[in-house]
Design goal:
mainly alpha; six-stranded mixed β-sheet; 28 helices; 6 strands; about 65% helix
Amino acid sequence: MLQRNFSWARRITCLANQSTSRKAITDSHQLHSSGRKITEFHLSSIVKICGRVEALQEGRQAHCLVLKLGFNADLILMTTLLDMYSKCTIIHEACRVFDEMPHRDVVVINSMISGLCRCHLPSHAIDLFTKMNQSDRDVGTWNSLISGLGQNSEGRTALIFFGRMRVEDVEVDVMTMISVISICADMAMIVHAQQVHGLVILSGFELYLPVGNAIVDMYAKCGCMGDACLCFQNMPFKNVISWTSLISGYAKHGFGVEALKAFQQMEMEGVVPNKITFLGTLYACSHSGLLQEGWSSFTTMVNKYSIAPTMEHYTCMVDLLARAGRLYEAHEFIETMPIKPDAKLLTAFLSSCCHHKNVELASAVGKKLLQLQPQEAGAYISLSNFYGLVGDLEGVANVRRLMLERGIRKEKACTWIEISRKVHIFESGDRSHPHYQKIYDHLRVLIQKMKNIGYVPDTSMVAQNVEELTKEEILLGHSEKLAIAFGIMSTPPGTRFLIVKNLRVCADCHVFTGLISKIEGREIVARDSSRFHHFKDGVCSCGNYW
């Protein structure tokens, strides 16, 4: 009997490791119904699988067995249960398991901190961390909190804790560095990024492949594609993630030709691309107007590498066609897709329909979009902008009414800039900055200089039914304009600087930034939710193809 139980345990664990998790759960049911003895080892494997595939019902059944068989004193098993509930985002159950444990070690607390962050409760995670004795924390505790804060858009707080970690002389490991590198990348904090890179070298982690991949991605996201390439070239070993990071970086910067050359080099070196690699190449083609190359990449993915396209791949193809003005081809592509389009795909198509002022297709796509009842505000904003563009104020009002009825809230536009290692964040119409009056005054001076050489504010996207001067005042308060004005005020003449916006840059701000780069003799790099824009001498690297 012992041998048979051991055989079942090995079978379940083996299936779990082979990613056939559902089969493992089925086998665990057979084990239970057969009357064989279930051990802590069986249950730990089953609970772990339930967490991996978010099988909450089966996880709760396993929890009942734990209590029934009296295994609730097993620390490893109870930690696995806690982790399972947090992965299923049932955090109150995870907290109950945590509270009912008779004793807890550092592994349990680390798991609880990770779970709280996973369920978007970073302040609770910080409270739990703070209540620990300093001597009880290990590097895993710090890593759980720092990475969790980063995943909750609390990068600045995470970097503060990283500073504390170093002050307390806690030895960092590879996971610490990868988390901090990712945070610097997400926030585009180039000064911090360079310092962290230096620490990586001093700590001897530079040769670790995951660290090298993260550094390439970090420099690309900080707007320093040259540094990303240099780090990539200096890597002694490269895998598909390394190449994908480089290709995706090129794509985000609008360097489509370079992205395709990197892809060809990757193939020549015998590295097999994956579905993420092809997302990078398709995105690069879409944002560089490489229509034929995009089709070729899509065909290669399907025919040569037998990779089934996902919704993201189809979205890139629709975007590729639509951006190039092939709206009816894009529409036909959507109609013949083997899967139904989702809201993101239709939103991308609608954006191009608006750009090319195709009212017929935009109206049809807009109706389909609303039928899907999307939960993301971007779909509604695109549709509202379209109605505003064609002067349909009733359409604008209807979309806003739908947003209220469906509880959809527009994400507040914000832009940040790093000056002297300090991040300054601006929201649209923001007057909270200590120097806001000087910023607005300087901005008005810049606008007047631009008007003197022919700039006319593009008020077509201001949906409010107000006077033209009021519309111009609304445009003046856009977050990227405020950040740029502050950047010019705060840095020496000729200094290059980077701004980061959480949403897509608007058409007026794109024109504004180009003109400012010419008037002020600056290189301004702008990273929005879609891509990078490098402005210099009045010209943007995107070639107005964005």
